[in-house]
Amino acid sequence: MQPLTEKTIRSSFINASRQEAKKLTLPENFDSLDWDSLDYLGWRDPKMMQRGYLLHTDGTGRTRGILLRPTDGGRKPNNATMCEMCRDVNIPCAVGMWTTKRAGQAGRDGNTLGTLICLSFECSRNVRIPPPKNPIYPDPMVVVAERIQLLDERVHSFLNRL
User: Fold this and answer.
1) pTM higher than 0.85 for the full model?
2) Which of 14, 67, 112, 155 gives 20 to 30 Å between its CA and that of 57?
């Protein structure tokens, strides 16, 4: 992912008001992010934990951001859940339902979209964990490269659905 500035982040939201974008708190480690190991930038607002943000830059260089809200409901604590973005069943983190209002008039009318995402947005790290070497995939780094590409496609697809 290309490095983003605070100004780019605040102006890239497709489903948040200017006021909501103005109030967001950047991630604590923003100045030291390893942009080369990120496929999207996602974080929970440290001052408003009921808000999450996801920003993605596509192949044309266009950056889009969305404001997300975690849901509290329904999941049993011991049920395993698969993140829709990194799609790894062995990931070492919690996954939860995030909802976001749609962009434009549909969002102003109250229409939302939801998906399962790692609660702390660790997808970029998860897809880079090499699988064990096996006869089907003798080179684990080929699998990692494929996972990175698929993560990028899934995030892009989700943003397009908004």
Assistant:
1) yes
2) 112
What is the structure's pLDDT at 75?
54
Residue 143 φ/ψ, nearest 5 degrees: -65, -45
Please, what's the largest Cα pairwise distance for the chain? 53
User: String of b and e for 90-122 (b: at least 16 CB within 10 Å)?
Assistant: ebeeebbbbebbbbeeebeeeeebeebbbbebb
Percentage of the chain beyond pLDDT 70 is 94
Place of tokens 């939860």: 96
For 38-83, what is each residue's pLDDT tens digit? 999 999 999 998 999 999 999 999 999 999 999 875 555 556 788 9
Which residue's structure tokens are 């011991």? Answer: 78
DSSP string, 21-50: HHH----TTGGG--GGG-SSEEEE-SS-TT
